[in-house]
Amino acid sequence: MPERLLERSLAAVWHPCSQMKQYDDGNMPLLPIVGARGAWLHGADGRRYLDGISSWWVNLFGHCHARINAAIRDQLEHLEHAMLAGFTHEPVVELSERLAARTGGRLGHCFYASDGASATEIALKMSAHHWRNCGRPEKHRFLCLAGGYHGETIGALGVTDIPLFRDAYGPLLRPATVLASPDARGAATSLEAAQAAAQALSRHLERHDAETAALIVEPLVQCAAGMAMHDPEYLRLARELCDRHQVHLICDEIAVGFGRTGSFFAHEQAGIRPDFLCLSKGITGGYLPLSAVMTRDDIYQSFYHDATARGFLHSHSYTGNPLACRAALATLDIFDDDDVLAANAARGDRIDAGLAPLAHHPAVSHYRRRGMIFAFDVHVDRDFARRYRLAALERELLLRPIAGDSGATVYLMPPYCLDNAEIDHLCRATAEALSEALPT
Length: 440
Ligand SMILES: Cc1ncc(COP(=O)(O)O)c(C=O)c1O
Hints:
The chain is α/β, with parallel strands linked by helices. It is built from 15 helices and 17 strands. The strands form four sheets. The protein has a seven-stranded mixed β-sheet, sandwiched between helices. Strand 1 (33-37) and strand 2 form a beta hairpin. The longest helix has 20 residues, at 340-359. Pyridoxal-5'-phosphate binds next to helix 6.
């Protein structure tokens, strides 16, 4: 292993989503990783870890996948990058066409950036700019859901309702209106939670639709909120209300797209299409930074004009990077060729069965599953998430529970490549780590 990697990292790298002092205190491990293959990350200390969270929800088919590797290598020999303003190239055109086809042609234009938060920014800007182009500049307010997360740049934080990430920057933000979440845990049935949240949306729109540009939602699973799952009925009702009040519906599928919830896109389960669809993370199979915002052709047309200022002048240097687009095309090829969703349904059922004993554990509440996302809550104490993470690592499993005030949500979002032995390891280590992390 490269010498003193840990010390050098602590001295030179500012790690994301981290209180750096905790690494120095030894409260939280910082693990040097030297390689990865399939579902496993290989540590510099010779240990390996089953990637139970797909490396922050990005990896789809395992690490170091032969087909994605080959596609990137091939692309590297031809064109590594070209700016997308004034130029175009085959990978970005083919990717746009194939993504549009995945929406049944409803979202016919695709705008690119490099990360999820940028996609959120783009969707918000496009929505408000569209209304301005249509002579309705007063429609520039946004709605989001309680507990929602859409990234951490200033604009994205304005529609994110996670105080830990948002509060320090309060004075910098232009906050959106936060509406009730359809989180099924809060009601007798998931349908009731969906209907109640839709009523709250309806009441708000009755009074404020004239100034509202868009509602942004994470369809089916609000991931950072603690894998809060909701009934597809909410999306159906929200779509109806947005149509009735001329408000855009932005589906942020940065985390839940590409099969995570059981369908290719999560919104499909409600039988709706959004006006804007934000994609990232799994889009490249977890290889390279790429995000996309897809929208309807008539929204695109409102920007199409002789006046430059009516165009969408937003840009990022690496927009539509060919290497990232080729990784994304290889990812789509795997979906097309390998019947991934059907294989995942069986894989998910086996994981679900393996976790079944946990659902009835006295310390566990709200065991839930949507497609390839599994979660349960444990309310014991604030330190539980840290103890659980360490206990899982001890058992060669990477899980990263989402901490709350009185406990945590333990969740599993594994890559779509686990074999039966790996599933058994995942379920066994998840249960054993719980036993160890509970207070004695
Ligand atoms: C739903 C959702 N939106 C946006 C983002 C932000 O993506 P990125 O971290 O690539 O900026 C995330 C990241 O976890 C997410 O889960």
